[in-house]
Known about the structure:
The chain is α/β, with parallel strands linked by helices and 480 residues long. It has helices at 41-58, 63-79, 81-92, 96-117, 154-167, 182-191, 207-215, 228-239, 263-275, 295-308, 328-339, 377-380, 396-404, 419-428, 461-466; strands at 3-4, 7-9, 12-14, 21-26, 31-37, 127-130, 133-141, 144-148, 171-175, 200-202, 221-225, 244-248, 254-257, 287-290, 346-349, 367-370, 387-392, 408-409, 411-415, 433-436, 451-452, 455-456, 469-477. It is built from 15 helices and 23 strands. The strands form six sheets. Strands 15-16-17-14-13-19-20 form a seven-stranded mixed beta sheet, with helices on both faces. A hairpin with a 2-residue loop joins strand 6 (127-130) and strand 7 (133-141). Helix 9 packs across helix 10 (295-308). It starts with a strand and ends with a strand.
Amino acid sequence: MTRTVLNVIDGKSVPARSERTTDVANPATGQVYATAPLSGADDVDAAFTAAAGAFESWRDSTPSERQRALLRIADAIEARAEEFVAVESENTGKPLGLTTTEELPPMLDQIRFFAGAARVLEGRSAGEYMAGMTSMIRREPIGVVGQVTPWNYPMMMAVWKWAPAIAAGNCVVLKPSDTTPVSTVLMAELMQEFLPPGVMNVVCGDRDTGRELVSHPVPQLVSITGSVRAGMEVAGAAARDLKRTHLELGGKAPVVVFDDADVASAAEEIAVAGFFNAGQDCTAATRVLAGPRVHDDFVAALAEQARTAALPGMPDDEDALFGPVNNPNQLARVEGFLSRLPDHASVVAGGSRPGGDLSSGWFHEATVVSGLRQDDELVQDEVFGPVISVQRFTDEDEAVRWANGVRYGLASSVWTKDHGRAMRMARRLDFGCVWINTHIPLVAEMPHGGFGHSGHGKDLSMYGLEDYTRIKHVMTNLDS
C-alpha cells in the first residue's frame, strides 16, 4: 500500500493546494512506496504566514519553556524509535541496525543538547562604557527562518536545522529533499503536540519549491545543507533580499596517513569513515594521502577492507556496512567518475554495481582507486558515493599542499604517532574540523562547519545556536 505524505502547515497536515504530488521510491528496491506533495508558491506562502503569526507569541516564550518542549519532543521520538528507524530505512535504504545504533541516539542527544543550550546563551556583561550611560546586549531570535535539508541523513539533518532554531525562539519553515521527505514529515507531525501551531512547518517539494522558500520575503535567514551548486544559488537569491544565509555544503576530506601510522588500524577505521552511508557524507574519508613508505601496504589493507568488510546490503542485512546510494542520478554520477578515470589511475577494489539480490536497487560496491594525481577529477570533486582515492605524498609539506589543494574546507584527519606533527598539521590544514587518529565522530557540544566552498556557519554546539540569534545593543541614560 502506498503511503500518503502531507505538508505540515500551521499545526495541520495538508496536501499541496494544487493537489500535485511526487513519487517517493525506496533506494534499496527502486520501488515507489509513497507520494508526497509537490508544493508551490501558495503552499510556501501559507507556511511562512503561519510561521510569522506564530512568532508573535513564540518570541516571548522563555528559555525554560522552549527547553521543556524540546525535551518532550526528544522523549516522544525515543518512545517511537522503532517506527522512526523503520521509516528512515525505507526512506533511504539504510541498514536498520546501523540506523538504530549510529543515527537515532546522536539525533536524540542533539535535541536534548539544544534544549539545555537554550538556557545558557552568553553575552557581554552590562556596563558603563560611556559616562552616565549603561550599555547591555540583548540576544534575540532572528524571527522566521527557512531551511532546506538533504537526502543523505534526512532525519538527523532536520534536527540539526530545527532544534537550534526553535531553541533560540525562532519559527521554522523546512523543506526536506524530494527523495526523502517521509521521516521529516513524521517528525513534524509528532512535534505539533508540543509546540504552538505554526512554530514548526514542513513543505515538501522539488527544487522549484526550494527556490520559492529562499526567495520568499518573510524569512530573515535561510539555512541549507546541500551541494555547492545549491548553496551558491541560495546565496545569490538571498543576497537580493539581504537575507542571512547558513550554508553547510560539500566536502572532500583529506585523510593524511603518515609513515608511522598503524596501517591495519588506520585502514579499518578509514574504510568505515569513507564507506559508511555509501560515502554519502560531506565529511566522509574519501581522499587519502599516504606516506611514501606506508602507501603500498595501506592501499592493500584498504582494498582488503573494501572487499571483505565494507559490504553493501539490504536494510535487514546485519553484515552490511551501508545501503544504496540515494537515487538513480546519484548512482550515475558515481559510475561516471569511475568511467572517466585517467589511464594512470587503477581501481584496486570494487568499481561496479553488485549483482544478485542488490541488482534492483541503487547499490554500488565499496571502491578503492590508487595512482591518482592532484589535478585529477576524482581528487578535486566530491563523488558522494562509496569511493576512496589514495595518493602517495613525499613529505609533510607536500601533504599539506595537496590536502589544502581543493576548493572544499569542511573536514580532515591526520594519522600519526608523532604528537608534534599532529599539532602542526592541525594548525596548517584549512578545514573546519581536524581529527587526529580518527575520522568522523561528532558530538553535540562541538561545531560542524567549514570554509571555502564548504560554506559558512556552524551546525551543532553553542556556535550553531548563536547562528540563529541576532544581537541588539541597548543603552540607557542613567540621569534620565
